[in-house]
Amino acid sequence: MSDAPPSAVPPIDRKLLRPGMRIAVAVSGGADSVALLRRLMDVASEIGLVLSIVHVHHGIRGAEADSDAEFVASLAAVHGLMFRRHDVDTPATAQENRETLEEAARNLRYAWFHDLLEQREADAVATAHTLDDQAETVLHKLLRGAWTEGLGGIHPVIQCARGAILRPFLGARRSAIEAWLRQIGQVWRDDTTNTDTAFTRNRIRHELLTMLVGYNPQIHSQLANMATLARDEEYYWQDELARILPGLLLPGKPVRGGGRATSTHPDEATLAVEIERLPQSPAVRRRILRAAARQLGIALNFDQTERLMAMLAPGGSRRQQLTAELHAERSPRELRLLKKSRPNSPAAQPSD
Fold first, then answer.
1. pTM, two decimal places
2. Distance CA 153, CA 138 (A)
């Protein structure tokens, strides 16, 4: 027998669980998802959960992926759980949609999860994202220039039209998960692509974060804490914008004699803000301007937002072309955002 001390049981967030909940556990066969399944099984009778297992075969790794699917199916059989398998062609989808393999795989997985919820096959789908995944996500978003909402990283809950996606393992470290699985004698499958540094996320995991640990051994926890703070900040701003935007955003353009004229063309739209009514705080102004653009279907980056901010200052420019579809105009009283879809853009195509 081993003299090693017993490993700590990886924590799950019980606040996400409720009695009678039917949870489809997304199990890839890797350590994280296998451990999540085992932990949910530990508390299922206590809380009153009804568990099943779902597995996506991405059509990427040939025989290795086939073996993963067989392993997960046998795991379900051993524990007497319903098993659902979903096969997709990730490479073909990635090529068709001009996505990376990572993007296509994720989109295909979540499309199926949403279908399961829509079809009422489960009340929730649980995925095994860990604290390590959270740290990697926050760092990845930071490198790509995310706003504070992006730094919120992986959310513990994604509410869907029906049901929810749950992440009960966000407080667990990957190293602790693997130690616990070894302690209880539970095997898992290793995905060899997780070491392939051709993928950006793997470079962040194996190279960048490893280097940052040398500066701060608690960097994973610090990044996860940042995500929590950013999410809470975003929740506050969502409530605040819902309160102030209706009184600030004006549709269309003013017309002589009062009132406003709005375009009836399906590919054109205009929103305006009265400059004198805007709060002076740069933080609030940025939020308002970005929210206005979002209502027109445009996501502004930092530079585009700063160009709008400059238009609000005395002596600012009167016109700015922000994107191919969006430009801004300033009058003595208003800053207007005008969207006109390009003829060949998806927004300009007639719907069936």
1. 0.86
2. 5
